[in-house]
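[agent] plan:
  1. take the single chain provided in the ticket
  2. run structure prediction with default settings
  3. attach structure tokens to the ticket
  4. add a short note for the reviewer (M.T.)
[agent] executing step 1
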Amino acid sequence: METDVQVRARDWLRKGGVRPTRQRLALAALLVGDGRNRHVTAEGLHRLAASRGAAVSKATVYNTLGLFCDAGLLNEIAVDGQTSSFDTCTTDHAHFFNERSGRLTDAPPNLVDVRVLAPPPDGTEIARVDVVVRLREI
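[agent] step 2 finished; step 3 output follows
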């Protein structure tokens, strides 16, 4: 019998049309198994998977995160020139990025109203809105 975590992971993959392989299920369970939204880096997810006994290579983690993004299950948030975070909440919303800790968190919903934007140039449409407010310790 499947646990709630496994059911949530399988349903999440199904929502994106992603075939549920053993490794994809293991990563999906870590990402959405508890039903909470989270922000992860590929490195952080790989470390978490290893600590939970999932035999998943770093390359598989990177490839799987890309697949999840392509399926619309995750958003990739480029926070600096070297690091991306992956967000399980795919609605348009703002983020805080702490430059010292490297931690990405959701900003309060009223920080930025992403519904009020200038119209895009002719022949284009807005695909997604990413707002990252960078924080520095004082």
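[agent] step 4 note for reviewer: The two ends are 51 Å apart (CA to CA).
[agent] ticket updated
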